[in-house]
Automatic annotation (TrEMBL):
Keywords in alphabetical order: Membrane, Transmembrane, Transmembrane helix
Organism: Planobispora siamensis
Domain of life: Bacteria
Membrane spanning residue stretches: 12-34, 46-65, 77-95
Name used for this protein in its record: Uncharacterized protein
UniProt KW Membrane keyword: yes
Amino acid sequence: MHTASFWQVTGWMAGFLFIFPLLCYLLWIAFFGFRNSMAFGITYGIFLLLEFLLALPALLVMRTIGPFPTLSAPAQALAAVGAVLAVTAFTPLLAPMARWPLYFVVCGRPPVVATKFAASYTYSVAGQRGYSVDPLSATHLFRTEQAAIRAGFHRGPD
């Protein structure tokens, strides 16, 4: 069986890490316009680059373990990306950013973003000027505004 090269797997990994979130971002722009999405796009782009850089050493380690090197390039890339996303989904400052695309898919729209930063207990919805997902302003994600209100958050300023 042909063993995939490191560069083939890296290419697939870049595709998985950048293409899916890019499609979500383009949907967001289509629904809410470009004005509210620039800051989010920059912040989330930096996060995705960090994810990619963290996945490279994970991939190098995984390629030395047991039957892993015999897997196809897409399978190796998915395993490395999955491992890094699993870790960042439970890392305090990175968790909301790692979970955002999943909430986008489950909700069918961008999720409600809430924060306890500076004891503000506020939330914002996509299209609102303050809507952003970054390590400080996004400590919680909700499917609906009602869920955020039930959790004790109030709507932030427009």
